[in-house]
Write a structure and sequence with these properties.
- The structure is a single chain.
- The chain is α/β, with parallel strands linked by helices.
- The protein has a single domain, classed as Arginase, Chain A, CATH 3.40.800.
- It contains eight helices and eleven strands.
- Strands 1-5-2-6-11-10-7-8-9 form a nine-stranded mixed sheet, sandwiched between helices. It has a two-stranded antiparallel ribbon with strand order 3-4.
- The radius of gyration is 17 Å and the shape is globular.
Length: 287
């Protein structure tokens, strides 16, 4: 019997052999929400676009000699969001994760977004000790447009949970965010100064378990043209993969997300990047 979740509904599924959530090691769900997007809308279509892009991908990961067709993966659909209401939507995400962890404590949630503000929900629900984020933006504003739950505030809200934070690929922010990071000892590396060595140096002493969040705008803009707040000067795909490979070997990971994939057409370049990233992360966590 298929496990039903109170706040989810059926959606296009990831193109892999799937199992029921109660038996899965990884449980995918989408959050089609972009109500606070401040520049380019469309992240509400991210979960559908990423899943559809998986049709183009081989399930076998050459790098790890792992076939994702042999990995226990579930896809429970999308959260039935409340349009325009960030907090109520986040409550539904938290309740869904709570249901999942009661039914299957070993499952690693995989969230597809959707705007980055929603990442607060799985972090609050899973209670990691560390939050490691790849992002073009600091996201440390106290409010944006009068809204403290805006996508530009997500890392600040997470910092208020007492989680240790490190950000990588950053290349946009305001002075107040830099000052807040100093006050709270939030470590971050500018995209111009990023290296695997610097990543390791910062992350190696961070407490476990960790939650990983990837705002797709961290990548070089040529790879992710369809995202809410695009920024030139991002990181390369393999730079992030190498960091994640090291991280997933060294630290316990309780969950991850891939956020801010936007667009309106199937086969979107940004969605293809997000789908490949999801496959690699599941593969490396399965090693």
């Amino acid at each position: 019997m298929q496990m039903e979740f109170f706040y989810t509904y059926g959606a296009i599924k990831t193109a892999l052999p799937l199992v029921d959530a109660k038996d899965a090691d990884f449980v995918i769900f989408g959050v089609p929400f972009d109500s606070t997007t401040s520049y380019r809308p469309g992240a509400r279509f991210g979960p559908v676009l990423v899943r559809q892009a998986t049709i183009n991908l081989e399930s076998y990961i050459l790098d790890y000699d792992i076939d994702l067709a042999d990995v226990k993966i579930a896809d429970i659909g999308d959260i039935n969001i409340v349009a325009g209401n960030s907090f109520e939507t986040m409550k539904r995400i938290m309740e869904t994760i709570k249901e999942l962890k009661i039914m299957n404590p070993k499952a690693i949630p995989v969230m597809l977004g959707g705007e980055h503000s929603m990442t607060y929900a799985p972090v609050r629900a899973l209670k990691p000790k560390s939050y490691i984020v790849f992002d073009a933006h600091l996201d440390l504003r106290n409010e944006f447009g009068g809204n403290p739950w805006n996508h530009a505030c997500v890392t600040r809200r997470i910092s208020e949970l007492g989680v240790e934070i490190a950000g990588f690929g950053i290349r946009s922010g305001i002075r107040e965010e830099v000052e807040y990071a100093k006050e709270r000892n939030i470590k971050w590396i500018h995209a111009r100064e990023y290296s695997l060595e610097k990543f390791r140096e910062i992350v190696k002493n961070m407490p476990e378990p960790v939650y990983i969040s990837i705002d797709i705008d961290v990548f070089d803009l040529s790879m992710v043209p369809s995202t809410g707040t695009p920024e030139a000067g991002g990181l390369k795909f393999w730079e992030i993969i190498e960091a994640l490979e090291w991280l997933t070997k060294e630290k316990e990971v309780v969950g991850f997300d891939i956020m801010e994939v936007a667009g309106t057409e199937l086969g979107d370049i940004t969605a293809l990047t997000g789908a490949k990233l999801m496959f690699y992360l599941i593969g490396m966590l399965s090693r």
